[in-house]
Amino acid sequence: MFESWKTRLFFTGLLVGFAVYLLIPTAIYFNLDEAKLREVRRDKHAFAKMLPSWTIDSHIVPGLDLQGGIHMVLGVDVDKALKDRTARTAERLKDYAKEQKIAFLEIDPALKATFVSKADLTAFSSFVEKKFQEVKISSEQDLALQMELDPMLVQTVRRDAVDQTINTIRTRIDKMGVTEPTISRRGGDKIQIQLPGFDNPEEAKSMIGRTAQLEFQMCDDKTDFLTTLKDLPAGVQLIRSSYGRPNGTQGKDYFLEFADAKLPEVKAYLKDKVPAENVIKYGQLGSGHMRTYTLERRVVLTGDDLIDAQVSQASDMDPRPAVSMTFSAAGARIFDELTKVNIGNRMAIVLEERVDSAPVFNSRIPNGRASITMGGGRSHEEVLRDANQLTLVLKSGALPAPVTFREERSVGPSLGADSVREGQKAFLVGSILVILLMIFYYRVSGMFSVIAVLCNLLMMLAALAWLGATITLPGIAGLLLTFGMAVDANVIINERIREELRRGKMPKLAVETGYKSAFTAVFDSHVTSFIAGVVLWEFGTGPVQNFAMMLIIGTVLSIFTAVFITRVFFDMVTARNPQELSI
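Above: the chain sequence. Below: its structure as tokens.
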């Protein structure tokens, strides 16, 4: 089908037309005024409304160094994710041991189990080997077993912690309205985030970095270990309070009260004093004061089962904004069972390690609905803003592990504007010089080369637009590099044709022989650059990957345009076996 130069010319025309079609959204995007650009950056559906209905909406996105914005690198605490997974496995082992009626003294969060008898230890070992493939027994001593997670599972937990964090952050950024973010993994435990056009770093940090781990734990009001404590730090006092139960009795509520600034001191004081089955968490007690909550160590329900969160009114009598939550069917069942056996007891709602409230179960709650009231001491607008932000965070999911900000910087748009302006000038001057040189040196054949190089540039930009790729300054460097490679390929082909003409061959035969002898050199040089691009993409990050992407796409298209498109024009002018060729 491609033997005829007319067919190939028609095919080339179709490709060029399709490339132009793909570049229409990019041309519109880069001609938007500042107001419309802000609208596009805040609303991911806005740009589609500015396009004709018959175009696609993907386009080339200018990178952070071209339009300014925020650059962050987050570290993911994968060890904490692994520790949590180990603790949850220990809880499951406890449940199964109870079901199998295996007597044990303790199975701690580090997977060390102590048994009552050798028979129980043997039965438990056999049970673990058969039913818990994710756990390996690492050592045995007397009546104690030390277990550990399977190494493959450890690897998976670490990898998934970063992947899940990326997904959650991506969801949160979508809800922030940032339409052109770049989120990528860096190494084993870091995530790079770039928010082009976003100019509020504090809001970005607040939304992205919040752990938002929601947990529900039962209050242990039977313990009175706080009353046995002596030498309380100055300014910390024991409060003996109570709360009403639905049956008319009073439940004990013993806690320590202290000023906010005393929290680190209280934590240090209580360290090693809390019973093994309990954990102390803290909540606000009016403005400037905090209190302790003595909770059962086991987390009975988490935010993983949350399916919806909305801002609502705290109650008919309380107009303050609150966040109402609805749990999944599984979460609702757990909530139902929990409330059924704990009527009259308190359950703490723990958000980000702080106790939000500890309501009393007055009745069974079968519908899986709960509510978080927002802290007081602020204006209605401030509380409403926090409630809205908390709702967004809860709906976008909790991070699987804590994150820390390891790098953060804001990039001003002026750097990008200067770079773009200077880059445009350099590209324009360089292109004109190359075009004039090619036409001057190779005459009509030089024109064919110029057309091929321009087609290469057009198709490359179209491919980037189709992919919705981000282009940065290193990417532009890669673009110019492949532009130069395309020129080199055409020079090699033209020189081979010249050599064949000097040997006395007719133009038609010289073109055919010239292309055959030039192909190996062109192909080898492009394959080398292609491999270099793949290596850079695999091991590089951010701007380096952007450069690599340009190199990979550019080398493939350079071969196509140099070998296929220029040949169409040479075959066209030699179709009638002319005596001379302008080259």
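The chain is about 50% helix and 20% strand.
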